[in-house]
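wait is this the right file?? whatever heres the structure
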């Protein structure tokens, strides 16, 4: 990605991932005794990772620099153990190895943004529960009134600008809306990082990431950490400090929409008779009903 020049110094996505994970491990975490003096390299040195994985320093260096793109499965597994990768991170490493070996010359087209009539009908039938359909890059492609009201402030933006990542990092109301704003940020970036590993040149992704790298120091810092846990915090109930209905904690369910690649349905579910259910009923009844304004392009903002 052109907009990642400040943090990604050449090489392949595979090499960038290995380096990011290496620099975030300490010698103590992998059983090395502290060395005298000040370490100039953050995290582990290349030779330390090579030793842990049982490969030569030259071979590991070529992996990081993008000169070697076809490590064997046994080497991939050894690297995963050396870098203490969790299941999602190891899956991501394997995906990167496959992609690096394939050398796809042209990125595949972005999935369709058109939401099917059936999905729109489903959103309506789920009322009063807030529900929405997002793209793979978290654009809100369609939503019911309760979802629009739940993300307080997002209705101020044109429909084509409404994106959950953009809202989290750039909307002034987001920090107050989420009780665990920092956790939400980490989960959001991890999801985008996982997508960037397998489809880094996709225009829908590069536009969003480029915008957030420029406009949000919080995003840039998290992006450099290269965490790729796809399920990070997504299954936990979310607590909102909502300006209209107060504090509410809502269980969340997300799922892929069949026949619509890249599109996900997200819904906050409640039990009738509970304060949470009463709150979502109020949100559904009082949601903004005005027609969305046409999309506008602001200076520095990529066109959609």
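ok assuming it is, sequence goes like this
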């Amino acid at each position: 990605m052109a907009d990642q020049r400040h943090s990604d110094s050449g090489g392949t996505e595979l090499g960038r991932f290995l380096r990011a994970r290496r620099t975030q491990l300490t010698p103590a975490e992998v059983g090395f005794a502290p060395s005298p003096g000040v370490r100039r390299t953050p995290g582990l040195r290349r030779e330390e990772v090579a030793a842990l994985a049982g490969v030569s320093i030259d071979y590991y260096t070529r992996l990081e620099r993008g000169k070697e793109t076809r490590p064997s499965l046994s080497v991939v597994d050894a690297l995963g153990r050396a870098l203490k990768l969790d299941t999602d991170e190891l899956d991501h490493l394997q995906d990167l190895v496959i992609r690096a070996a394939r050398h796809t010359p042209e990125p595949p087209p972005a999935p369709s943004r058109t939401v099917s009539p059936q999905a729109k009908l489903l959103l309506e039938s789920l009322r009063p529960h807030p529900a929405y359909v997002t793209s793979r890059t978290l654009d809100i492609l369609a939503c019911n009134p309760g979802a629009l009201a739940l993300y307080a402030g997002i209705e101020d933006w044109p429909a084509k600008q409404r994106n959950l990542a953009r809202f989290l990092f750039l909307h002034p109301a987001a920090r107050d809306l989420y009780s665990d704003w920092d956790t939400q940020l980490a989960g959001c970036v991890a999801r985008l990082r996982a997508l960037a590993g397998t489809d880094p040149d996709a225009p829908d992704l590069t536009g969003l990431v480029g915008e957030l790298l420029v406009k949000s120091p919080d995003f840039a810092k998290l992006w450099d950490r290269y965490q790729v846990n796809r399920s990070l915090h997504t299954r936990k109930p979310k607590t909102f400090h909502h300006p209209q209905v107060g504090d509410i904690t809502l269980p969340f369910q997300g799922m892929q929409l069949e026949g619509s690649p890249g599109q996900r349905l997200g819904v906050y579910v409640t039990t009738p008779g509970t304060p949470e259910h009463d709150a979502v009923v109020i949100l559904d009844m009082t949601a903004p009903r005005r027609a969305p304004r046409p999309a506008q392009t602001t200076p520095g903002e990529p066109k959609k």
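The longest helix spans residues 181-198. so i think its the right one actually
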